[in-house]
Write a structure and sequence with these properties.
Helix content: 55-70%
Number of helices: 9
Structural class: mainly alpha
Radius of gyration: 20 Å
Shape: globular
Strand content: under 5%
Distance between the termini: 54 Å
Number of strands: 0
């Protein structure tokens, strides 16, 4: 026998596209947190649990780890671009935002670089992300800055990115800041962009 809701009972509203966008954002945040805490060996299902959605929702948005890595890195680059476009942030502040993303997403950067050698589409994607970061940072780079020469800015970022290792976020941040200090580059507070 089929039961129908009584007039006083209501079914939960179906938010449709709003829910999909909200779920995707929650999955990206959860993936960044899970892999920052546990590395790439963390179960894929842990992302769904952390985001508070079912595994079907996870797989609908991200069929595999590479798709999650792509989404997280894309969001990272968007945040760096927003930080660079914000009036009150200076170059050091934008580097602080970039450094936060490097420390939070070290596992994804490693996954992306591992795939570069075997898949031309991943290599092209990685280059496109790098170019966007470079454009955003160059727009804020003060005249005469030590990283102003043709390839110095991206080489410094690659060097810092390579130094961002360690089992904890605090250790990765410490190593990143040490690398910037050794390059004699001032970095603002290491934090996500909140503007």
């Amino acid at each position: 026998m089929t039961q129908h809701p009584t007039p006083n009972e209501r079914r939960p509203a179906n938010d449709g596209p709003k829910a999909a966008a909200r779920n995707r954002a929650a999955l990206v945040t959860a993936a960044r947190e899970i892999y920052a805490e546990h590395g790439l060996d963390a179960p894929f299902s842990a992302i769904a649990r952390r985001a508070g959605v079912g595994q079907g929702v996870l797989y609908r948005h991200f069929p595999d780890r590479a798709a999650v890595a792509t989404a997280v890195l894309e969001e990272n680059v968007r945040q760096v671009e927003k930080a660079a476009a914000a009036e009150p942030l200076a170059f050091a502040g934008v580097l602080g935002v970039l450094t936060w993303h490097l420390t939070e997403s070290a596992a994804f950067i490693g996954l992306l670089h591992a795939g570069e050698a075997s898949r031309p589409d991943i290599r092209a994607y990685a280059l496109a992300l790098s170019e966007r970061v470079e454009r955003a940072l160059r727009a804020e780079l003060p005249d005469g800055h030590r990283l102003g020469a043709a390839n110095d800015l991206m080489l410094a970022i690659a060097m810092v990115s390579g130094a961002v290792t360690g089992p904890t976020r605090a250790e990765r941040e410490r190593r990143a800041l040490t690398a910037w200090r050794l390059l004699d580059v001032e970095v603002g507070p290491v934090r996500p962009f909140g503007g």
